[in-house]
Amino acid sequence: MDIFEKCDSFVIARIAKASGLYPYFLTIEDSEGTEAVIDGHRVLMLGSNNYLGLTTDPRVRAAAIKATETYGTSCTGSRLQNGTLALHLELEERLAKFVGKEAALVFSTGFQVNLGVISCLITRNDVVVTDKEDHASIIDGAMLAMGDLRRFGHNDMKHLDRVLEGLDADSGALVVVDGLYSTGGDLAPLPEMIEVCRRHQARLMVDDAHGLGVMAHGRGTAEHFGVTKDVDLIMGTFSKSFASLGGFIAGDENIVHYIQHNARSFIFSAAMPASNVAAALASLEIIENEPERVDRLWQITERMRSGLKEMGFNTGSSVSPIIPVIIGEMEPALNAWKKLFDAGVYTNAFVPPGVPEGRCLLRTSYMATHTDDQIDRALNIFGEVGRELGLID
Predict the structure, then answer these.
(1) How far is CA 33 from CA 30, 197, 366, 369, 381, in A?
(2) Global pTM?
(3) Within a 13 Å sphere around the CA of 206, how many CA atoms are in the beta-carbon half?
(4) Which pLDDT tens digit goes with each residue over 299-312?
(5) If DSSP codes are grouped into helix, strand and coil, which group holds residue 106?
(6) Which residue segments constitute the domains of the chain, with CATH numbers given?
(7) DSSP letter assigned to residue 271
(8) Contact 164, 148 (CB under 8 A)
């Protein structure tokens, strides 16, 4: 069998494009943060992870420009060899302090953090245990590892307990979960999870890509629950609230030291460019010194969530600035996405395998820089489209 045969038979995306209901890889021609021009159409942006609106902040832009002028556009090598800048070390030191851990290590992308950390810590006879709704990078890291992979039902602590109970007594176990889930907007029940992990002597790693900058005045999900010291490893990214690109792992110094010398995605990748490091540093400075920005994000979030619920939309279990509008079947979800887009609101369409069958949704997310008028406009458009399509009364 020709390995390319599968490519010829992959037609679902072409069918969606031909029908005008293809919601992916659209071209962003201009962006002011809360609004964008996409495929020539100006829309209100409700589909970004730019939670604090810092990607267009003049201070963040200026920091990136200054770093580029000083260091150039690339490190042209790995951190192991010629790619470690003083900026990397400063960011690592400040991040560790920010999330309440001894040490931190910066990777070139958040995806690479999970690939490298999980695959280097999980060796033969070890087991990595993941939530069924964990991010793809966690699953891929687990599949790269030499140990076994087990999964438990989403936020189901009884199921997690059974999975850990069933492991061989000689196996080391690492439980890896999202702190704030990127599709449903719900939180991992970290206090209960910590109790289960302790009972079975399992370690806990929290991917807080979406929680950092959002929860507990930006310090993340573990801080939100007051359990930072009980979480072994905290992972974060810079491509959301930190207005940049890259990621990090934070934990005890000896663990971070081991990862630094064993994570292949760290050792064999080019280092983060100075511009990205400087942008993340500038964003961290703003998050630390302007808590009112996070307060504003939550004001907008609660207003939008209550407005959607009052109209009759199903927003699931969201308790964060990620608010899903759960529709159900694929065709109505794609129709709703297109109607909203045409009316001037951009959302993210999630269909299988990104979500379970029958749970297609539109993922909306909000920024501290959205104005009250923009939120009014978004709610009005959602109401008009929802009634037109019979999604609400």
Answers:
(1) 9, 40, 11, 8, 19
(2) 0.96
(3) 32
(4) 999 999 999 999 99
(5) strand
(6) 5-56+290-388 (3.90.1150.10), 58-289 (3.40.640.10)
(7) P
(8) no
